Amino acid sequence: MNESPSPRVDILYEQGPCFCIAKPAGLLTQAPPHIDSLESRFKAFIRQRDLKTGKVYLGVPHRLDRPVSGVLTFARNVRAARRISQQFETRLVRKVYWAFVAGQPSEDRGVWEDPIRKIPDVAMAEIVPPSDPGARWAKLKYEVLRRTEQGAWLEIELDTGRYHQIRVQCASRGFPILGDVSYGGEIPFGPQSDDERARHIALHARYLRLKHPMVDEIVAVTAPLPETWNAIAGWHAEWEAQRVIEDVAP
Question: Most exposed residue of 66, 110, 145, 149, measured as fewest CB within 10 angstroms of its CB?
Answer without folding.
Answer: 149
